[in-house]
Amino acid sequence: MQSEMRAALNLILKEFTELDYVHPEDIPNIDLYIDQVVSLLETYLSTYIKGENNKEDKIVTKTMINNYTKNHVLPSPDKKKYSRDHVLMLILIYYLKSFLSIKDIQILLEPVTEKYFGTESELSFYELYEELVALGNGQAKALIKDVVSKY
Question: Which of 56, 112, 124, 137 is the most exposed place for a label (fewest CB within 10 A)?
Fold first, then answer.
């Protein structure tokens, strides 16, 4: 029984350590049309879908993106083209959707969008996303260390 529990814990920890965020430097700094954005997000985020039943689930669709824009969760594209900041924002929305409602995401991201999205402020949205990834990775390492020490 003890060895089964240890094996299960090791498997969980192994999967947890293999999780990684999409790094901002992986996103091209070119403007993309909505179909290209959907394709790019499917490529980068497909590793987050597990199980046979989820193979047909879409990570993001054109309709979702349009609804995010209509509901002011995502800023409007410029001449139907989405910037790297749009793609990073969509990735952030995808992560947040796993534990927040769209309305809560809108409330959370509204001040961030106003201050950092597509601006030349002291801190760009790219840098803000980069910092969030670094914080997430640091917390993941601390969580693994804590679980192992408590086990």
Answer: 56
Cβ atoms of 75 and 110 within 8 Å: the answer is no
- For residue 11, give both structure tokens: 């498997």
Residue with tokens 């409602």: 101
Non-local (6+) Cβ contacts of 60 within 8 A are: 37, 38, 41, 42, 45, 90, 94
- 79 φψ region: left (φ > 0), alpha (ψ -120 to 50), beta (else): left
- The pTM of this model reads 0.80
Decide: 60 and 90 in contact? Cβ < 8 Å.
Answer: yes
Give the CA count within 13 Å in the CB-facing half-sphere of 64: 15
